Amino acid sequence: MRSWHYKHKQKNFKPKVETECLLIESVLLEILKLIKDQEGKSRAVIIERMIVYFLEKDQGNKNETAWNKSKRTYRRTLKNYKKEAKVKREHLQKAKKDAEKRKLYICKNSPFSYFRGY
Protein backbone atom coordinates (compact mmCIF):
# COMPACT_ATOMS: atom_id res chain seq x y z
CA MET A 1 0.00 0.00 0.00
CA ARG A 2 1.09 3.56 -0.67
CA SER A 3 1.68 6.07 2.09
CA TRP A 4 -0.92 8.79 2.61
CA HIS A 5 1.43 11.60 1.58
CA TYR A 6 2.61 10.06 -1.68
CA LYS A 7 2.34 12.42 -4.66
CA HIS A 8 2.75 11.32 -8.25
CA LYS A 9 4.23 13.50 -11.00
CA GLN A 10 0.96 13.50 -12.94
CA LYS A 11 -1.78 15.37 -11.11
CA ASN A 12 -4.67 13.05 -12.03
CA PHE A 13 -2.76 9.78 -11.68
CA LYS A 14 -4.85 6.83 -10.53
CA PRO A 15 -3.11 3.58 -9.60
CA LYS A 16 -4.26 0.45 -11.41
CA VAL A 17 -4.00 -1.72 -8.30
CA GLU A 18 -7.04 -1.52 -6.04
CA THR A 19 -6.18 -1.10 -2.39
CA GLU A 20 -8.03 -2.80 0.44
CA CYS A 21 -9.96 0.39 1.17
CA LEU A 22 -11.32 0.58 -2.37
CA LEU A 23 -12.31 -3.08 -2.26
CA ILE A 24 -14.21 -2.58 0.99
CA GLU A 25 -15.90 0.51 -0.43
CA SER A 26 -17.00 -1.29 -3.60
CA VAL A 27 -18.33 -4.26 -1.60
CA LEU A 28 -20.20 -1.94 0.77
CA LEU A 29 -21.76 -0.09 -2.17
CA GLU A 30 -22.86 -3.40 -3.72
CA ILE A 31 -24.45 -4.47 -0.43
CA LEU A 32 -26.24 -1.12 -0.09
CA LYS A 33 -27.48 -1.41 -3.68
CA LEU A 34 -28.93 -4.86 -2.99
CA ILE A 35 -30.64 -3.69 0.21
CA LYS A 36 -31.94 -0.60 -1.61
CA ASP A 37 -33.49 -2.77 -4.34
CA GLN A 38 -35.00 -5.14 -1.80
CA GLU A 39 -36.48 -2.58 0.62
CA GLY A 40 -37.15 0.24 -1.84
CA LYS A 41 -35.48 2.88 0.34
CA SER A 42 -32.58 5.22 -0.38
CA ARG A 43 -29.00 4.44 0.61
CA ALA A 44 -28.92 7.38 3.03
CA VAL A 45 -31.92 6.00 4.94
CA ILE A 46 -30.38 2.53 5.08
CA ILE A 47 -27.06 3.90 6.35
CA GLU A 48 -28.83 6.04 8.95
CA ARG A 49 -30.80 3.02 10.14
CA MET A 50 -27.62 0.92 10.34
CA ILE A 51 -25.90 3.63 12.39
CA VAL A 52 -28.82 3.81 14.84
CA TYR A 53 -28.80 0.02 15.09
CA PHE A 54 -25.08 -0.16 15.86
CA LEU A 55 -25.29 2.70 18.39
CA GLU A 56 -28.12 0.94 20.22
CA LYS A 57 -26.21 -2.35 20.05
CA ASP A 58 -23.12 -0.61 21.44
CA GLN A 59 -25.16 0.64 24.42
CA GLY A 60 -25.88 -2.97 25.32
CA ASN A 61 -29.39 -3.47 23.96
CA LYS A 62 -30.49 -6.76 22.42
CA ASN A 63 -30.55 -7.26 18.65
CA GLU A 64 -34.35 -7.08 18.41
CA THR A 65 -34.63 -3.97 20.61
CA ALA A 66 -31.94 -2.14 18.63
CA TRP A 67 -33.56 -3.10 15.31
CA ASN A 68 -37.00 -1.90 16.48
CA LYS A 69 -35.54 1.43 17.64
CA SER A 70 -33.90 1.93 14.25
CA LYS A 71 -37.27 1.17 12.58
CA ARG A 72 -38.98 3.72 14.79
CA THR A 73 -36.52 6.49 13.94
CA TYR A 74 -37.00 5.81 10.23
CA ARG A 75 -40.80 5.95 10.55
CA ARG A 76 -40.62 9.18 12.54
CA THR A 77 -38.54 10.93 9.86
CA LEU A 78 -40.85 9.62 7.15
CA LYS A 79 -43.93 10.97 8.94
CA ASN A 80 -42.28 14.37 9.37
CA TYR A 81 -41.55 14.57 5.64
CA LYS A 82 -45.15 13.67 4.79
CA LYS A 83 -46.47 16.26 7.24
CA GLU A 84 -44.23 19.01 5.84
CA ALA A 85 -45.20 18.14 2.26
CA LYS A 86 -48.90 18.25 3.15
CA VAL A 87 -48.60 21.66 4.83
CA LYS A 88 -46.63 23.04 1.88
CA ARG A 89 -49.17 21.69 -0.63
CA GLU A 90 -52.10 23.21 1.30
CA HIS A 91 -50.30 26.55 1.51
CA LEU A 92 -49.67 26.60 -2.25
CA GLN A 93 -53.30 25.69 -3.01
CA LYS A 94 -54.55 28.46 -0.71
CA ALA A 95 -52.24 31.00 -2.35
CA LYS A 96 -53.48 29.95 -5.80
CA LYS A 97 -57.15 30.32 -4.76
CA ASP A 98 -56.47 33.73 -3.22
CA ALA A 99 -54.78 34.91 -6.42
CA GLU A 100 -57.79 33.77 -8.50
CA LYS A 101 -60.23 35.52 -6.14
CA ARG A 102 -58.17 38.71 -6.28
CA LYS A 103 -58.11 38.57 -10.08
CA LEU A 104 -61.91 38.07 -10.28
CA TYR A 105 -62.51 40.86 -7.76
CA ILE A 106 -60.41 43.30 -9.80
CA CYS A 107 -62.27 42.35 -12.99
CA LYS A 108 -65.72 42.73 -11.37
CA ASN A 109 -64.93 46.21 -10.06
CA SER A 110 -63.74 47.60 -13.37
CA PRO A 111 -66.16 50.15 -14.91
CA PHE A 112 -66.71 48.25 -18.17
CA SER A 113 -66.95 44.74 -16.74
CA TYR A 114 -70.56 44.38 -17.94
CA PHE A 115 -69.53 44.81 -21.57
CA ARG A 116 -66.48 42.57 -21.31
CA GLY A 117 -68.50 39.61 -20.06
CA TYR A 118 -66.79 39.09 -16.70
Describe the protein.
By secondary structure, the protein is an all-alpha fold. The chain has a domain at 42-111. Helices cover 73% and strands 0% of the residues. It has 4 helices and no strands. Helix 2 packs across helix 3 (63-108). The longest helix is centred in the last third of the chain and has 46 residues, at 63-108. The mean pLDDT is 78.
* pLDDT < 50 stretches: none
Structural class: mainly alpha
Number of helices in the DSSP assignment: 4
Task: Report, as a whole number of angstroms, the end-to-end distance.
Answer: 79 Å
Spatial extent as radius of gyration: 28 Å
Taken in chain order, the helices and strands follow as HHHH
- Strand tally is 0
Mean model confidence by pLDDT: 78
